[in-house]
Amino acid sequence: MVSIDWSVAIQIINFLFLIWIMNIVLYKPIRSMLLKRKSEVDGLGKDINGLSMEANAKNKEYEDGIRGARAEGLKRRDALVQEASTEEKGIIAKINEDAQAEMAKVREQITQDAEKVKTSLLKEVDMFANEIGKKILGRAI
C-alpha cells in the first residue's frame, strides 16, 4: 500500500513547482499567442465585413451607373429615331412636292401638245374632208 510520509510532501511540492514553471514557460506564452491570434482573426473579420460592405456599395453604384447609361442610351436612341423620322418625312414631302411639280409640268406639256395637234388637225380637216370625199365619190368636191 501507499504509505504517507515526508516523500509525499516532497512530491506535492515538486508537482506544484513543475506546474508553476510550466505555467511561466509554456502556458502563458501559448495563451498570449492564442489571444493575439484571436484578436487578429477578429480584426480580419471586421476588415472582411467592412470590405464586403464597401464591395456591395461599389457593386450597387456600378449597377446604378449601368442602368443610368442604358437609360441615357435609350433616350439618345429615341431622339435619333425621332430626328431621323422627322428628316425622313421632310425628304418624302420634298420628293412628293418635286413629283407633283414634275407631274404638273408633264400635264401642261401634254395639254399644249394636244392643243397644237388639235389646231393642226383643224387646219387640215378641210383638206382631209376633200380627200375623203374624192375617194368616196370619185371626184373633187
Could you explain the architecture of this structure?
94% of the residues lie in helices and 0% in strands. The protein contains one helix and no strands. It starts with 5 loop residues before the first helix and ends with a helix. The protein has 141 residues and is an all-alpha fold.
Characterize the overall form: rod-shaped
Largest sheet: none
User: Could you tell me the mean pLDDT?
Assistant: 90
Cα separation of the termini: 181 Å
Which bin fits the share of residues in helices? Answer: over 70%
- Encode the helix/strand succession as letters: H
Unreliable stretches:
none
Number of strands: 0
Radius of gyration: 58 Å
Secondary-structure-based class equals mainly alpha
Question: Could you tell me the strand content as a percent range?
Answer: under 5%
What is the count of DSSP helices, taking H or I runs of 4+ residues?
1
Throw out a few tags for this protein.
141 residues, mainly alpha, 94% helix, rod-shaped
Q: Briefly, what is this?
A:
This protein is an all-alpha fold and 141 residues long. The protein has one helix at residues 6-137.
How are the SSEs placed, and which strands pair?
Blueprint: H1 6-137
